[in-house]
Write a structure and sequence with these properties.
By secondary structure, this protein is an alpha/beta fold. Helix content is 45%, strand content 9%. The strands form two sheets. A four-stranded parallel β-sheet has the order 3-2-4-5, sandwiched between helices. The chain has a three-stranded parallel β-sheet with strand order 6-1-7, with no helix packed on it. Strand 4, helix 6 and strand 5 form a beta-alpha-beta unit. It is globular and about 60 Å long.
Length: 305
Amino acid sequence: MVVTISDHSNRFLASIPHPAAAIAIRWPWLDGGMPSYDAFLLVSFGGPEGPDDVMPFLANVTRGRNVPPERLASVAEHYDAFGGVSPINQQCRDLLAAVRADFEASGLALPLYWGNRNWTPYLVDTVRAMTADGVRRAIAFVTSAYSSYSSCRQYLDDIERARAAVGPGAPEIDKIRRYFNHPGFIEPFAGSAADALATLPPDLRDDAHLVFTAHSVPAAMAEASGPGGGWRYVAELTEAAAVAVNAPGAVPGSDEEARARLGDYFAEVLLLDQGTDAARARDELGWDPSHPSLTEEFRQGSYRS
């Protein structure tokens, strides 16, 4: 298998440990230092569930951004092929069902709630229901694993805005920290990629290219992502991809091979010098880290955002 992701020279980031290594360490905070939660909250983006939902949904997504109506109408056409239905809400329902089953199997009796940023069930309505149910402190899982304004900080803002709208009595809500390198997030990607490669004929399998894609964000947002900026969104995507393919038979391909197989234009996009690390962020962007390392966060029990 030939992998065509990494930095401009097409090498993997050096010395990326498998995240499972940290799981084997039992830090003191696991023995009673965690807050006591009385509810689980799933927070997501939301999506339309029928043709009549599409334009109101897009209006919510673009609220305050002065997007012309004709542009919204053009974007709405993308939903036509799916009957105006985004898969995200059903995926959230499926996720909640899986979490509920796991909680029950583990003897956890936490009630489960779900609120969206841009479509029903809206987060503010969910927080209001939690307040009425007497929830005092909830742990929130957001369906976005990476660092950037849209994928992390905006959800923190959404949570605080919902709590403020509900007013006194609204529960405290702690967002689970980003999980881009958690084994439970990485292993399904690795497993699915291996399963897909296994379906290829043997004469094609060893020379197959695995291309990683991700949600695009504006360059300014990517540059500002992470504590103090530093292109954390790009770095975390790169690390997740590298860890996912850290398996026998995975070897990096050259720039020339990428151009020959994918064409100059597409290859150049993939080969953009987007790889980064902490040292590069400090040297080139003047980044002065103000937060502890991941290991130190675990040691201190700071697992929340």
